[in-house]
Design brief:
The complex is a heterodimer of chains A (637) and B (301). By secondary structure, chain A is α/β, with parallel strands linked by helices. Chain A has 19 helices and 27 strands. With 301 residues, chain B is of the alpha/beta class. The chains are: A alpha/beta (637), B alpha/beta (301).
Chain lengths: 637, 301
């Protein structure tokens, strides 16, 4: 059956049996696709033709079109279909299009939403936007010109955005006398290129948008072609939800619905899989487990729901779960991480700067993100990789990205809804970048947080105390270790459960693989922070004594602990005093140039701005300092 | 256990619900613009579904011109009550004082009651997000409209400052004073709207269905004599005609079509077989091309 038969049949059905038609329309599925190509490829003509052939154009619009065609069209007295799909007045006047337009048409089987992305400078940004919601991409080629640089660019971007259905539409066949040889050569060229960038399959269709050949019906002049016509293919190709529904259940919580004390529903759109009452689920990032009690809708409870549906779930247990969390199948939860490798597409005139914090939105989660490392940029025309430090408008780069809190995610390839993110400028609030996560950088990516029943509060309560981390910071020789040791002795004598994490001791075991480069120093501190955190989880009062000269490291540790548990103790000793003490003889070596990067000499010490406790070792003895710290900690007296 | 693939209407509904929940979660003070038309009816219905069993967590705002059809006022009040939502009605006090009306003031009527009235209401209540029922298929310039459309503190729409919308991620951040219009029905077509009303049995203003009504024919438009404020011109007489409306606005500005379609399927049938596009019935659109875009820049919707 050809496309045009379908359309006439549909028309008859409307007139003869509207109820049957409505029943048919109601059961149509939805396919979203993107058309890639410039005006020269006949893209607008093709879209105009699809709208026209599927009777989406009314008589008044057609009358206007005919008038316009004669006035400004490029087809003489014939209808210029391209005029159907032009856009904003400002663009029309300038003769350029700057954005993504969405068009709609339907056939007997499907409704279609077409993202139309015009060319020119903003191309990458626009195409990436249009492709992000598409199930299929139509890549247009002018049969006279064959595979061009722009064909490669369009294909690369479609592939980058994870579009699995690629249609190579070899257009303007009428201008090459409908020759099979021309078509075959182009397909062969394209296949080589597709292999190169990892496109596994594509469907090539020879057509003429202008004459209508192989759009809705086969063209008489191309009897040598026995594949589907364009509309047939669009009607029958698989859509992405078919794939997503077979994955494990995942849903980002958008909204907690709490009309009264008796009802607590978690609302969101199912990103993948299916769910039914009774299914065991896990809430990420907390790791808490429960099971689904009901799937609530206004039309009654559902006995199951699938990817693509917006639902409200209630859980069997009262567990913490809020916007930004992901509810997932208990046996296949997504990863949770705060560092990723991702491909980043830049969409702003203001270039991306590594280290600058951006607001990030992924799923329903909002956090703060920085690009920590730009690995390489990709030239969208040649696919060549080149090193880069920043990223300009329409640039594409593979980067490491770090977030200020752990977020649940999946690789973009697996599920765009949990692996695609946007970056937002925190001052202008503009959307400046879009990213696709490849994988998490930490080796812990497959280890899920196990929620435990005996909480950190319970551990501390049993010991009759509140867990704390006393983070001593100060210059070498300031007296950190001495004072920390005294504090521990006094607390121990008072029956407190404590532990002093000594820098040297840690380097003999846990951190013996680390040296003294900047990166190793940071890692040293991070590990000490993690161990200290575990110990506070066990209810202990933990003391550490490290120079820890940088605010950022200390802030990193502070952010790892619950608010109030991190107590920064600044052992304030002027450099000249510490240097004069020089207990270990290190200052002498540093002054002699035998020790590099020595804090206070040729490496800075950033004093704390708001340390919870500050002791001045010039005015106080170590004993007095220790008593002062304990008094501060447990209140005066 | 196999489930059928979701239909296009189910996907559209799910998308609209997703959009509404995002706004509820991220905007400080959202509101739903409610014009009582068929698109508003669908938008309200979807909102009820999005937040069920709670009522939608925002009020309805009707920017009233005082010249709507009586049947619209009746349905408006009942719909808000049944949804358990607060209904705010704003009438531009200046337009009221100056007696601005569709008979004497032409385009100024729409401008003052609707465009100015909307801006006044949004500023007065301090709403930072307003849902509207506009669709991308309505008009060429709307094909490029974002789902989240940003407005300056003066309610102006700047095409250059609109944000790219990728996947299902909507950037709802804004500076103080700025606001957004959000169009959850962006991807619906007119047929989808009708089909959904039919399927979900949504109550709409009866004027969409054909009945014998008192009318006057003027300048090629069939106008309905809805109340005694109607001003007759010389030689005009009330004629009973079988009419229905394809869109609803101020009754002296809204043209009816002659029709026998008294049920929803019949209306849909007529719509599909008709040969003119939807907005023809509205007097305000008989301007130059791109008129909607100009109105949008001025803050019309």
């Amino acid at each position: 059956m050809t496309g045009s038969d379908v359309i006439y049949k549909t028309d008859d059905l409307i007139a003869e049996d509207i109820d049957a038609y409505l029943d048919q329309h109601q059961h149509k599925s939805l396919l979203r696709f993107i058309t890639c190509g410039s005006v020269d490829d006949g893209k607008s003509t093709l879209i105009g033709r699809l709208l026209y052939d599927s009777k989406m154009i009314f008589e008044d619009q057609l009358a206007a079109l005919e008038a316009d065609s004669k006035q400004v069209g490029t087809q003489g007295q014939d209808i210029d279909f391209a005029l159907l799909v032009d856009g904003l007045a400002a663009e029309r006047e300038q003769g350029i299009t700057i954005d993504v337009a969405y068009r709609f048409f339907a056939t007997e089987k499907r409704k279609f939403i077409v993202a139309d992305t015009p060319g020119h400078e903003q191309y990458t940004r626009n195409m990436v936007t249009g492709a992000s919601t598409a199930d299929l991409a139509v890549i247009l080629i002018d049969a006279r010109k064959g595979v061009l640089i722009q064909t490669r660019r369009h294909s690369y971007l479609a592939h980058l955005l994870g579009i699995r259905n690629i249609v190579l539409a070899v257009n303007k066949m009428d201008l090459v006398d409908y020759e099979q040889g021309t078509f075959d050569d182009i397909v062969s060229d394209y296949r080589d290129f597709a292999d190169e960038i990892g496109i596994e399959k594509f469907v090539a269709i020879p057509l003429s948008g202008l004459k209508g050949d192989n759009i809705a019906a086969p063209g008489d002049a191309m009897r040598w072609y026995d594949g589907p016509v364009l509309l047939d293919h669009l009607e029958n190709v698989g859509i992405d939800y078919d794939r997503l529904r077979n994955q494990p259940f995942r849903m980002a919580v958008q909204w907690v619905n709490r009309p009264d004390l008796d009802f607590r529903g978690f609302a969101g759109m199912i990103a993948s899989g299916r769910i039914a009452p009774g299914d065991a689920v896990r809430v990420l990032p907390s790791g808490k487990m429960s099971s689904v009690e009901r799937i609530v809708t206004m039309n009654g409870d559902l006995d199951q729901a699938v990817a693509g549906q917006s639902v409200t779930l209630t859980l069997a247990d009262e567990i913490d779960c809020s916007r930004g969390d992901v509810i997932a199948a208990a046996d296949a939860p997504p990863e949770v991480a705060d560092q990723f490798e991702a491909t980043l597409v830049w969409m702003s005139d203001e270039p991306m700067l590594p280290g600058r914090p951006y607001a990030m939105k992924i799923g329903s989660s909002n956090c703060r993100a920085t690009v920590t490392d730009e690995k390489y940029q990709v030239n969208v025309n040649t696919m060549e990789k080149a090193p880069g430090k920043t990223l300009g408008l329409n640039g594409i780069a593979v980067c490491n990205i770090s977030t200020d809190k752990p977020v649940p995610f999946t690789a973009y390839d697996e599920n765009p809804d949990l692996g695609g993110f946007i970056l937002i400028d925190r001052i202008t609030n503009a959307t400046v970048g879009a990213g696709m996560i490849h994988f998490a950088l930490r080796r812990s990516q497959n280890i899920h947080w196990q929620a435990v029943d005996v909480t950190r509060e319970a551990h501390a309560e049993l010991k009759g105390q509140q867990a704390r981390l006393l983070w001593f910071t100060g210059l070498s020789g300031s007296g950190k270790s001495t004072i920390a040791n005294l504090v521990e002795k006094k607390l121990h004598a008072a029956g407190r459960h404590t532990f002093l994490l000594d820098g040297d001791n840690v380097r003999h075991g846990l951190n013996r693989d680390l040296g003294f480069t900047d990166a190793d120093r940071v890692e040293n501190i991070r590990r000490v922070g993690e161990v200290a955190k575990l110990m506070t989880d066990a209810g202990l009062i933990v003391m550490t004594a490290f120079i820890s000269p940088f605010r950022s490291e200390r802030r990193m540790i502070r952010n790892m602990l619950p608010k109030g548990d991190f107590v920064e103790v600044f052992v304030d000793t002027p450099l000249e005093v510490a240097e004069e003490r020089d207990v270990k003889g290190l200052y002498k070596k540093a002054r002699a140039g035998e020790l590099k990067n020595f804090t206070g000499i040729d490496s800075p010490y950033e004093e704390p701005d708001n340390a919870e406790i500050r002791v001045n070792t010039v005015e106080m003895s170590a004993e007095e300092a220790a008593d002062y710290i304990i008094a501060q900690l447990f209140g005066e007296g | 256990m196999t489930l059928e693939r979701l239909t296009h209407l189910e996907r559209l509904e799910a998308e609209s619900i997703h959009i509404m929940r995002e706004v509820a979660a991220e905007a400080e003070k959202p509101v739903m613009l409610y014009s009582v038309g068929k698109d508003s009816a669908v938008m309200l219905h979807v909102a009820k579904k999005a937040f069920y069993p709670a009522p939608p967590p925002f009020p309805l705002l009707h920017v009233d011109t005082t010249w709507k059809f009586q049947a619209m006022y009746e349905l408006r009040d009942r719909s808000a009550r049944e949804a358990g939502m607060e209904l705010l009605v704003h009438q531009n006090p200046e337009a009221k004082e100056r007696g601005i009306n569709p008979f004497d003031h032409g385009p100024l009527h729409t401008d003052m009651w609707k465009t100015e009235g909307l801006k006044q209401a949004l500023t007065e209540y301090g709403f930072d997000a307003a849902f509207g029922g506009a669709r991308r298929d309505e008009e060429k310039s709307r094909a490029k409209e974002r789902v989240f459309s940003f407005r300056t503190a003066n309610h102006r729409w700047d095409p250059k400052s609109q944000r790219p919308e990728l996947w299902k991620l909507y950037n709802a951040r804004k500076a103080k004073g700025e606001s957004m219009r959000v169009f959850p029905l962006s991807n619906w077509t007119e047929l989808d709207i009708w089909q959904y009303i039919h399927l979900e049995n949504i109550e709409i203003v009866p004027l969409y269905l054909s009945a014998k009504r008192p009318t006057v024919e003027r300048d090629g438009l069939i106008l309905m004599v809805d109340d005694d404020r109607f001003r007759f011109e010389d030689g005009e007489e009330v004629v009973e005609r079988s009419i229905r409306f394809r869109t609803l606005g101020c009754y002296p500005l809204t043209g009816a079509v002659e029709s026998e379609a008294a049920t929803l399927p019949e209306v849909i049938q007529e719509m599909l077989l008709t040969t003119t596009s939807e907005r023809e019935g509205r007097a305000i659109d008989h301007d130059q091309a791109a008129s909607m875009e100009k109105k949008k820049q001025e803050g019309y919707f």
